[in-house]
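Late entry, written up from scratch paper. The run itself happened at the end of the previous shift, but nothing got recorded in the book at the time, so transcribing now.
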Amino acid sequence: MTSLKLPLALLLAMLAGTAAASSDPGTASIAWTNKSEMLTYSSCGCADSCWVAELRERASKRLKARLRCDCATLFARHPANASERELPGSCSAINDSDDKMAAIAQTMKRIVARQIP
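Output as recorded:
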């Protein structure tokens, strides 16, 4: 029993250090072509069907656009000070995609280019 205590304590200490080192472990970066901007993703539940993607200026962290799914309905906000609007269709085209992050990036590009009504 004593031999298990040390490895377990070491593992717990390593996990605590990893969690403390991360500023927001629930947020992931998505590949984005404009290097002065960053696109991030965070899940909020529904087995990863509820999520928020935000496009921000890299230097100032100012929000430029937001795309989110509430488990069924897709919403967008662009520019950031505009009202959020429901997008046509549902989240399933993104959520069921083979590459969900690429689908989010592609949809965000269309929103920023104002190709989505």
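The chain has a mean pLDDT of 83.
(Scratch paper discarded after transcription.)
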